Amino acid sequence: MKDTRLLRTLKTFSREEMKLFEKFAASPFFNNGRNYLPLLSELKIFLSGIDSDNFSYENIYENLYPGKKFNKQVMWNLVSGLEKLALEFILQTALKSSKKERSVLMFDELLKRNLNSEIFSQIQKTEKYLSGLKYGREYFSIRYIAENNKCEYWNLAQGRQDKSLEGTVKSSEYLILNLLSELSVIAWDLHVMLLTYNTGKELNSAIELINSLDLKNLVSIAKKNKSEYADIINFYYNKIMCAADESNESYFFEMKEYFENNHELFDNQEQRNTIITLANYCALKMRSGNDEFLKILFELNKFRLKSGIENLNGRINKALYHQILRNALSLGEIKWSEDFIKVYTPKLKKEHQKTMNFLASGYLSYAKKDYADSLENLNKVEFIDIRDKLHVRILSAKAYYELGSSESLFYYIDTSKHFIGNNSFLEKETKEFYMKFFNFLNKLLICKENPDRNKLKKLKEDIHFDRTLRKRHKDWLIEKTDNLIQ
Predict the structure, then answer these.
(1) Are residues 35 and 155 in the same domain?
(2) Is there a contact between 395 and 374 (Cβ–Cβ < 8 Å)?
(3) How confident is the model at residue 197, as a pLDDT?
(4) 207 near 190, Cβ under 8 Å?
(5) Is 110 found in the same domain as 232?
(6) In a domain, 286, yes or no
(7) % helix / strand / coil in the chain, to the nearest 5?
(8) What pLDDT is recorded for position 53?
(9) Which residues pair with 135 in a beta bridge?
(10) Which residues of the chain have pLDDT under 50?
(11) Is the pTM here over 0.70, yes or no?
């Protein structure tokens, strides 16, 4: 019983949610007159960690029904009933916080009951809520629903088709905007999957479907008709086309310029989503060898920090912190990086600050060519996840090479390859890349110990034409090979 669906569900409840669930389970409206609180009390004891070794259906039944013979069916019925209540509680909690779903359900029910004054009041409440929202998926979807509701109110409740005309026109525009905002996310998800995985016909068909839409003409019509949302439509068009036609950089630059000048028009979710889209585009361009986007990403990162995008509750995400630092150092922005570490390390989660400071110091010392200090800091990194280990392994290997510590490096390469090869948490592409790097480094080290110009030229050629290596690591390996050839 320790791993039932009910217990897995209850484990997700916060302390406050558990208190609310007790009240929920006690309500006759939901529990159909059955008292589930004694069972819930028993389960809470187990969830708290007290006496968990003696936890079983039989022991719970004995506590619930002292002196009675164990009845398995009764226990199953109780557990099943409480499980249904827990799922209903999750649904009601979600519904309570979802303005869109509440608006749809409430309007439909009021319309069925011919409560016309209440319908009008509900429309006014929705309008008031929308007045406090900025552009994004929530805004456009609720706007579409609100305009549809107005149409139905005037058509069905008041019999005034003439009054519904404006709502019909507006709802069509909001429907398009909602579709574009959704497509801008889906298009990028599909694009990333296409680049990352060996995908099948279903994914290619979905991409072809998006590409078949005449979105350019949609933008032209919006501009021609001087639509209030013409610029927003054009923004989403550029965002979608960045994924659909990555080679045409004009979509990226037009989207970037509009967003940087108008980001305050959008809600937090759309701001974060757009800045991630822009950063991902830069990353894809850099991987293909376009170094211009290193600087573009650096400026984009400065913008996202200054504007506070993704700075949730005064915090910065660990992965973002790492990306910003590495990007800055790749451009030789050492002073800027020092200031960044000083200001933003305290803004990481408290449990991440110490180890990320060591990792950042390792990167910084390496950039300053103080390789011994870099290794000293990297050795102090307490790994948070598998990615941290991989970053540390590559940077440490490079530092060993720069220090000329061949014996230590041969050993380090061997242990790194074993670590990567035996790790089941790494996806195939990531494994292939890291294994390839250490294999090339091993060959480079052998050539360094026993120089052979022909072997070095062959090694450089192999590195150059390899399609697995990331550009920054490929460039480093080629640079070290060239140093030995000269």
Answers:
(1) no
(2) yes
(3) 64
(4) yes
(5) yes
(6) no
(7) 80, 0, 20
(8) 64
(9) 266
(10) none
(11) yes
